[in-house]
Amino acid sequence: MDDSDLFAAAHRQPTTRRPLLGLTILVIEDSRYACEAMRLLCLRSGARIRRADCLKSARRHLQVYRPSVLIVDLGLPDGSGVDLIEEAVSASPRVSVVLGTSGDDTGQDAALAAGADGFLAKPVTSLAAFQQAILSRLPADRQPIGAVDLPDEVIHPDLLAFQDDMAHVADVLNVAQEDKMLNYVAQFLGGVARSVGDHSLAEAATGLTQALSAGRPVATEAARIAGLVQDRLSQKLAI
Predict the structure, then answer these.
(1) 7 pLDDT more than 70
(2) Which of 6, 117, 196, 205 is the most exposed place for a label (fewest CB within 10 A)?
(3) CA distances from residue 187 to 5, 211, 235 in whole angstroms, order as listed
(4) β-strand pairing of 79-80 with 75-76
């Protein structure tokens, strides 16, 4: 279902326990771990989720249907989510709610400057915060009837999704080592590491970002990250 499916929407009215019932949320996110978190949040809230892992896929989705809510990760393998936010907020008809998300401390300013209605800082694990970010920006006719008691619940994605993210990074590092791809790896790993509380991996990602920004040789930092990724792949779920 999408926002153009008014008949279906009329039969899926939000409730106080499932306040996002009737909404379709398109999540553009390349991290399997972060996407699994979004899936659980949508499931608990009553929303239907559609997913895209890059700008190209997201644009293809948006040519076919209009979701109720768009949640865009800013760091994607084929470009910046900021560009997609700018396109979404200028489109007609406009998606009702457009939110940016990132593990980068500067992500909120970039998303809001692009026209996003709000921002979700990673890790996104609080059900109440997730629901409030959407409900507070929905039109009045899409709000649930009656007071909503936002649940104080934290979701915990399956760590198998974290393993998928590590395998993805290993594949990227095996294929390319140019600065553009290393910038992507640093951004991607930083967000995933913060989401799972992996401080060593987060520090390594920050070190790579700093070296790239300063124009220093990055072989040492890239090798450190490759080693840490392989360690986590070999550990399976023992993180």
Answers:
(1) no
(2) 6
(3) 37, 13, 23
(4) antiparallel
The two counts, helices (H) then strands (E), for the chain are: 10, 7
Q: 219-235 and 159-175 helices cross at what angle (nearest 10)?
A: 140
For the segment 53-64, the average pLDDT, to the nearest whole number, is 96
Domains and CATH numbers, the chain: 6-142 (3.40.50.2300), 159-235 (no CATH)
Partners of 97 in the β-ladder: 69
Tokens of 17: 């326990």
Residue 105, CA distances (Å) to 10, 119, 187 in order? 39, 11, 11
Give the containing element (helix H, strand E) for 173. Answer: helix 159-175
pLDDT of residue 10: 44
Strand partners for 25: 49, 69
**What confidence score (pLDDT) does residue 12 get?**
66
Does pLDDT of 1 surpass 70? no
